[in-house]
Amino acid sequence: MLTIGASNPVFAQTTIPGINMTSARMTEAEITREDVISRLETATPSKPADFSRMRLNGLDLSRLDFSKAIFRASAMNNVNLSGANLDGAVLDQAWVTNADLSDASLRRASLFMTQFGGANLDGADLFQSRAAADFTRASLKDANFTDADLSADMKNQSMGLMRGVLKKAIADGADFTGASLSRADFEFAKLRGANFTNADLSMTTLGGADLTGALVSGAKFRNADVTSTRLKDLKGKTGDQFDKAKNLNRAFQK
Questions:
Q1: Planar angle of CA 216, 217, 220, nearest 5 degrees
Q2: Given a cut of 50, is residue 3 above it in pLDDT?
Q3: Distance (Å, rounded) from C-alpha 11 to C-alpha 50?
Q4: DSSP secondary structure letters along 84-145
Q5: Could you tell me where the DSSP H helices lie in the chain?
Q6: Are the C-beta atoms of 107 and 129 separated by less than 8 Å?
Q7: What's the pLDDT at 15?
Q8: What angle do CA 162, 151, 16 make, to 5 degrees?
Q9: Could you give the residue ranges of the DSSP H alpha helices within 140-210?
Q10: Residue 37 per-residue DSSP state
Q11: Is 171 helix (H, G, I), strand (E, B) or coil?
């Protein structure tokens, strides 16, 4: 058993009942990088590598090819996945808090209820990913969310509102072109210079978010809550684009 150092205090979901972020489940690894590579080498297109429910916390897995691998409900806190290929991978319900995924590729990955709190996804590629995930306090600078789906899953209301959550995330320069962001939560997120061309932000929570200099050509803001949202120097804005937004009179527009 590999014991990893104390988790980064940047993000800790201590308020979630039954979750102890200092437990062995959340801080230790049960296999090594060499073990992971061995599993990848024996994987096939019809039987991808499966790490479901495994403890991979703190491992250096940078630049490995995990395309279509399965990490369902795995514990991967503080893991180094920088530059890794996770295209088509399944990380549903996985814990990836305070992890390094900078420049990682997660194209068309399944990230349903994945916990990315405090993680570094700067420059990550999440093209067409299903990202109803928690990115609270994550760094997403220049990340690519083109055609990604962060919208709420309205079929699983018994589980609560599963949606993309970017509370207090830093997503300056991120690309949300054509993304589905309906009912997503961007409260207090930094989105300066982000690209929202043709994105659907209907009913999105933008309270306190900073969209200074963002590109909003063709973006929909129907019933989006813009309370205390910074909407300064927006590019591609039309005169009536925010007419159906909520609390526009309480936004910062000048």
A1: 70
A2: no
A3: 27
A4: -B-TT-B-TT-B-TT-B-TT-B-TT-B-TT-B-TT-B-TT-B-TT-B---B-TT-B-TT-B-
A5: 24-27, 33-42
A6: yes
A7: 43
A8: 25
A9: none
A10: H
A11: coil
Instruction: Check residue 254 and give its pLDDT.
Output: 80
Residue 138 and residue 121 in contact, taking contact as beta carbons nearer than 8 Å: yes
Question: What is the average per-residue pLDDT within 108-127?
Answer: 97
How far from 6 is each of 28, 85, 222, CA to CA, in Å?
A: 9, 27, 43
Rounded Cα distance, 243 and 52, in Å = 46
Give the Cα separation of 162 and 158 in Å (integer). Answer: 10
**Residue-averaged pLDDT of the chain:** 93
Q: Are 136 and 11 in contact (CB under 8 A)?
A: yes
pTM check: above 0.70: yes
pLDDT at 16: 57
Cβ–Cβ under 8 Å, residues 235 and 214 = yes
Q: Are residues 159 and 181 in contact, defined by beta-carbon separation less than 8 angstroms?
A: no
Q: Shortest CA distance to 230 belongs to which of 197, 200, 187?
A: 187
Q: Is 27 helix (H, G, I), strand (E, B) or coil?
A: helix
CA-CA distance, 230 to 58, in Å (whole number)?
Answer: 37
* Tokens found for residue 183: 């009912």
